[in-house]
Amino acid sequence: MQITDVRVRKVAKEGKLKAVVSITMDEEFVIHDIKVIEGEKGLFIAMPSKKSLDGEYRDIAHPINSGTRERIQNIILSKYEEAMSKEVMEA
């Protein structure tokens, strides 16, 4: 599986949510609404989720193992940083 496209949409408001990202895998499958969040230990991603009847949030789509999650997170955060530095240069 290869991530063939990453689209970063910066969030304009202040807060922990920094961007919302869509990724395309193998030019055939897209996951929307991955969040880039500023945490106490730095940036991380949160997979798309929805609130269940018991009030808990459950991921709609997520990697099965930690290696895949880390690879997806590294690619997304790299593209996020690239988009932010490009935005600064254009300002």
TrEMBL record:
Gene3D superfamilies: Stage V sporulation protein G. It comes from Dorea hominis. InterPro entries: SpoVG (IPR007170), SpoVG_sf (IPR036751). Belongs to the SpoVG family. Transmembrane segments: none annotated. This is Putative septation protein SpoVG. The keyword Cell division applies. The keyword Ligase does not apply.
